[in-house]
Amino acid sequence: MAWLLFMDESGHSHKELPYEVRGGFALADTHLWPFVQDALRLELSCFGARLADYKSEIKGMKLLSQDRFTHAQQMAEFEARKRQQLCRALLQAGLEKRPPTREQLTSYGQASPRMADGIFDLLSYEGLNSDYVHQAIDHAECYVKGNVHTNGLENFWCLLKRCFKGTYVSVEPFHLFRYLDEEVFRFNNPKDNDGGRYLKAVGGIAGRRLTYRQLIGPAPAT
């Protein structure tokens, strides 16, 4: 089984997007197609149509733009069937280059964050509850709630980027997991200096063998 790692860190102006979109998730290859199908069903549930059929696309910057939140609050929440009908009308108006109505803008604004929430629900940490304590924090409300925050994660990715951009001049994709393991080891032993971490690393190689051929690249095809 293979794992697919998707990462995103959006640099943007907060005048256009009220939230900093920064995150990543790993998805097993066996779960990829079910996830795609669930996302398509979610899209139909929110917008009543496939955005691609109207030459549009699903992007975090568009779903969570400031305009979407402004439009969503113009009117009371639409029920699902009415929202879908108005969203389709807005998308069709876009194809025909007609200005949308206030109702259409409101419905699309309400559907967009609903789609974003649904995607996060699909990528929730299912199956981890038996081994981990999972809590969430909404940056629209606060950044820290007791011991619940994303500071540790942001700190790790910041250090990892420094490692890639400053310490190593070239990172090959097939060695990426080794660089990640190194940074994880360093991050999880913050109180040790380089000497202490070196002794721990050397102490873990007993009984293990890594050949030069394995080190420099993938095994040749047979």
Give structural attributes.
9 helices, two-stranded antiparallel sheet, 222 residues, elongated, mainly alpha, 2 domains
Low-confidence stretches: none
Shape: elongated
Residue share in β-strands: 5-15%
- Cα end-to-end separation: 21 Å
Number of strands: 2
Largest sheet: 2 strands, antiparallel
Task: Compute the number of structural domains.
Answer: 2
**What's the gyration radius in Å?**
23 Å
What would the average pLDDT be, to the nearest integer?
81
- Order of strands in the sheet with the most strands? 1-2
The run of helices and strands is EEHHHHHHHHH
Number of helices: 9
Short description:
The chain is mostly helical and 222 residues long.
Topology:
Layout: E1 3-9, E2 22-28, H1 29-47, H2 60-63, H3 66-72, H4 80-95, H5 102-122, H6 151-167, H7 176-188, H8 194-203, H9 212-216
Antiparallel strand pairs: 1-2
Helix pairs in contact: 1-4, 1-5, 3-5, 4-5, 6-7
Describe the 3D structure.
With 222 residues, this protein is mainly α. It has two domains: 3-122, no CATH class; 151-216. It is built from nine helices and two strands; from the N terminus they run E-E-H-H-H-H-H-H-H-H-H. It has helices spanning 29-47, 60-63, 66-72, 80-95, 102-122, 151-167, 176-188, 194-203, 212-216; strands spanning 3-9, 22-28. The chain has a two-stranded antiparallel ribbon with strand order 1-2. Helix 1 (29-47) crosses helix 4 (80-95) and helix 6 (151-167) packs across helix 7. The model has no long low-confidence stretch (mean pLDDT 81).
